[in-house]
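Researcher: I need the complex structure. Ligand is NAP. Inputs:
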Amino acid sequence: MLQGFKILTVTHKHTKLQDLGKYLFAENQGDELLGRLENLKQVMRLEELMYLATCNRVLYFFYVENTVDHKFILDFFRTVNPTIEEQDVFGSEMSAHSFYEGEAAIFHLFKVTASIDSMVVGEREILRQIREAYGQCQQWGLTDDNIRLAMDFAVRSAKNIYANTRIGEKPVSVVSLAMQKMLATELPDSPKILLVGAGQTNTLVAKFLKSYNYTNVLVFNRSIERSQKLVDTVEIGEAKSLSELPSHRGGFDCMIVCTAATEPVITNALYQQLIGQDNEQKILIDLSIPHNIAEEVVTRNNTQYIEIEGLRVLANENLAFRRQEVVKATELTQAEVKTFHPIYRQRMLERALQHIPKEIKAIKAHAMNEVFKKELDLLDDETKALLERMMLYMERRCIGIPMKAAKEAMLY
Ligand SMILES: NC(=O)c1ccc[n+]([C@@H]2O[C@H](COP(=O)([O-])OP(=O)(O)OC[C@H]3O[C@@H](n4cnc5c(N)ncnc54)[C@H](OP(=O)(O)O)[C@@H]3O)[C@@H](O)[C@H]2O)c1
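Model: Output:
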């Protein structure tokens, strides 16, 4: 019954992330992407199509009654990317792609939506991404009733899994763990924060700081353009060049350092310039690998030090905890798939029977306006009105009969 549901997907599990680009559309938004998806739908004769591309997964969820075989899969990916080789798709030892059909496709969709299949288990970002992808494909008219029903159920199932398991508990990102540790220290109400480095990691840090209303932030970066970009995107603090750091005399309560430098950026000599006569304890957070705060800064000064190794150990422990919950989450997902069966069957039945009310109405109209027209014209108004009421009553009762019978039949 679920046989029409199919998924072709390529993920971090079976291919290198740098190769993922071969299996997705180079056009990633707007009319160009829509054109490519419409073409794929037409060429492969798909009834419905939904497309999801993230940094570690591309997923084609489609509805088609036809059998999907080796040739179909190759034609499919060649329509996506004409330069792709058969070897890329099927590999010599292991296929880059995975194919799921029927109940297995629904199970896979539910697992992806609930982030059980994610690189970082329990990361809710995928739920947002998949809802957005569906919303876009629906708006573009690429999907219809089958995918709508499966997606509604997938989202419901994911919420149930987050609520009834602990897969989303305990932070697994080093940045969120560092921020938790920072919040547990005794910082003043509006702490002065120095952010050294303005790459991806510190951009995330800045977003956290903003969410806690810590906006007294100076961002020092080697290139001022990048610190300015961070300040503008996150709408926080002030941008500075790293070369201005030695002359900073405004003091600070917390310094968060994260750059790709391979030598310490914060040497003890620089640190002494920054603190001057200030002997208050400072919170130092170093998220860089290798460390960017020289060891002697930590050992020779009044500091509370939060460093990346300890956070990584904690992140791995938390991830292991989430993975343990995967067993329970998978069982719950299987149960959700079983619940989806009768709901889908009922919907199919409704679709099969949806022409009945129209036909009954048409029979009534034909009887009254043509077959019995002459006899009806001879009746007085009161009798005519009574007859019409009776016909309407019959019409409504008749419409309910097949639906009721079908529902009863489904129970057996
Ligand atoms: N903890 C984790 O889980 C985690 C995750 C990701 C990264 N990291 C570590 O965090 C560090 C940065 O990662 P990222 O993803 O934020 O990197 P990124 O986005 O590539 O940014 C690199 C940053 O480092 C600066 N930088 C590079 N070389 C420098 C140098 N010699 N002196 C001063 N600044 C320099 C760059 O400045 P310009 O703009 O001037 O180039 C830029 O601000 C790395 O050590 C990485 O290993 C840790």
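Model: Summary of the prediction. The longest strand covers residues 5-11.
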